[in-house]
Amino acid sequence: MDHTDAMPIAELLDERRYLRDVADSMLSRRSEAESVVDETYRRWFGLSEAARRRIKAPRSWLARTVDGICRSRLAQPFLDDDVTHEGETAEVRRAAARPAAVPEAEVSRVQPMALDSLSPARRVRFLLEDVFGMAPGTFTNVWGHPVPERNEAQQLLHFLRLRRSTPTTPQQHDAAVRAVRQACLNDDVDLLASLLDPDVAAFFDGGGKVRALPRPVHGRWHVAHSLLKLLTCHPGTTLTTHSVNGRTGLVARYGHQVAAVVSLDIADDQVAQVWAVLNPDKLLTWNQTPAQTRPPA
Questions:
Q1: 145-149, 207-211, 234-238, 250-254: which has the minimum mean pLDDT?
Q2: Which helix (H) or strand (E) holds 273?
Q3: Distance of alpha carbon 213 from alpha carbon 6, whole angstroms
Q4: What is the pLDDT of residues 85-104, one digit of tens each?
């Protein structure tokens, strides 16, 4: 996985709406259509990364899977082979033909405010074990190599880069976030990368509800490219600053819908961590409040 896998928020929302429309056209209840779309994404993320890469047209695969799930619910028989196509591996066909197991703890259950109450070490332990499914007592660094358990605290603190000698004031935090916003608006990858810590980590919380990056992204250049791809200035997409969990963050809208809420951890005037909430369920509160009552900061 790398930053080339990132998708603009406009495409993320359009894809989910398209799949819901396909399900709506076949089923009578909207709630059932939503559950079909959720099941479709569970099957997508149930594939291995290698299997997903072999699918040349993901939206078409997703649409065929929606169609197959709907036909199964309408006619009861198990899914036929018409949800697959030539060239797909046995793993892809099996995933399209049966429900994928739901992860024991998926990103959709993570609440940023709750994470803020944890120490940096416990926060990353939770992310890596409970959210990203790593075995307890085993941590990996940014290259994927095992880290000895006796060094885990030091490695985790270095991973997040949140413990620095100079505290960040609200004014410094605000200035750094506004600089990130401007770099994104200008599509300036060099400027954006310069605002990021060399060991910055970015988490994209799609909750398995949209085709967001399923794993963290590390390093200033990978994170910069991923953020620009996500927040690209697609027609109808806007990016503003707003209070997020008590500090300045970024809110991305596609049309009138809030599509992403981004919180940034700042240390020594650089971004040490990015948390982008893309899960539609977590954004319900933002979208239930009229936009005019949530003016940009």
A1: 145-149
A2: strand 270-277
A3: 6
A4: 444 555 555 555 454 443 43
Q: Using alpha carbons only, how large is the chain's radius of gyration in Å?
A: 20
Distance CA 239, CA 254 (A): 9
C-alpha–C-alpha distance, residues 135 and 148, integer Å: 13
Q: Cβ contacts of residue 211 below 8 Å, gap of 6+?
A: 7, 12, 15, 41, 44, 58
289: alpha, beta or left, given left = phi > 0 and alpha = psi -120 to 50?
Answer: beta
Relative to beta strand 247-254, strand 237-244 is: antiparallel
**Structure tokens given for 189:** 């990858």
CB 118 within 8 A of CB 126: yes
Identify whether the C-beta of residue 106 lies closer than 8 Å to the C-beta of residue 207.
yes
Full-model pTM: 0.69
**Residues carrying CATH 3.10.450.50, the chain:** 107-293
Question: pLDDT digit string (tens) for 52-81?
Answer: 999 999 999 999 999 999 999 888 644 444
For residues 133 and 140, what is the distance between their CA atoms, to the nearest angstrom?
Answer: 12
Q: Tell me the pLDDT band of 47, cut-offs 50, 70 and 90.
A: very high
Question: Pairing between strand 217-218 and 237-244?
Answer: unpaired
**Architecture of the domain made up of 107-293:** Roll (3.10)
